[in-house]
Fold this protein.
Amino acid sequence: MENESIIKVTGLSKRYRIGLKEELHDSLASSITSFLKSPFKSFKNLRRLANTSDESEDVFYALKDINFEVKKGEVLGIVGMNGAGKSTLLKVLSRITEPTFGEIEIKGRVASLLEVGTGFHPDLTGRENIFLNGTLLGMSKKEIISKMEEIIEFSGVRKFIDTPVKRYSSGMRVRLAFSVAAHLDPEILIIDEVLAVGDYEFQNKCMGKMQDAASNGKTVLFVSHNLAAVKQLCTRAILLKNGEKIAEGSVDDIIDKYKSVNKLGIETVGKKIFSPSDDVDFELLELGLYNSEGKNSYNFEYIEEIKIEVIFKILKSKPNYYIYLSVVDQSESTIFVTSDEDLIDGYLCGTLKPSNHKYNLWIPSKILKPGRYAITINCCNMFYPNVKQYPSVIHFEIIDSKTSRGIKSLYRPDQIVAPEIKWEFQGK
């Protein structure tokens, strides 16, 4: 049945009791006294552990009264800040941990990609670890053998498949582990942040594998901080905060809600001043956004260009240093990237003398469609990329109150930018 509920969660709660405070002793006499009193203290601690009152300071709810259903063939995204309860929810659904209260109904075989690489033995070869890891994930020996070549091909480590895993790089281990887990054949696939691992090419392969599973009628639960991946993969989403479900609906609505709840949308001032760092070569001091009137702002019209001021300090000149800046949208998709290699004179920041310096750059008008954006800055070394990263350090918003483009519905949800393209009519 197409509309059949394959997962049903009712009143789900997971409660933990925060560990009891350990008493430290600063003298032998104090330690002996504590030892003699220990039976009484142990009895007292057991009484505290038996206390089921939610009012107790020791009680912590990782999940509280969660309710939702997932239909067969649906791809459900689960979003929220760190500590919201996303991973706990998936572990409960995967039967890794038991719920404190509530009911879970699951129909079908479940495969969980929660901690990729769990069960790999460093002294075994990649091929041997495929058998080991596949068995731990519930695959039969016959199933593993039939999919061995496909797993090896997908992982991209064929050249080293008979080499002990302890000689693999961390990226190679992750690729092989994901490849094993991705070739299970379950009715329900539970995924937690696995698309955040590996290089760009492999992440695309992983995304393609998940899309194939979804298009083949598999039910998928997907947790990720990569909102672009959630938007691309999922058909519906729920938002968690402090262990509670606070919203459920379309992916676009939930992403907007997530941004507003966590105040990731707009800064109150279009300027960011950075604290001193321990870097001995380079420091970012200040980042500011300015409108067409030269005023500091976080709110810009579609028809005006945005001036960006980057103030930084060179502590030790190194010719291989450079700065690059990227603009990302609400889904964390990169709109464009620019670097100081675009300077007219071609000088990188590393060639500058030790002192404070400033770069000015401009985002052209009529490029970014109305919406919310963020700026990430990286100070890099040509030989060691991403030496220092400042992710989403400042946010801004593009609005359109001075043109008629909005009336023409030109700002479609599926478009990334909104350039003004010149058309010319040439009649006969």
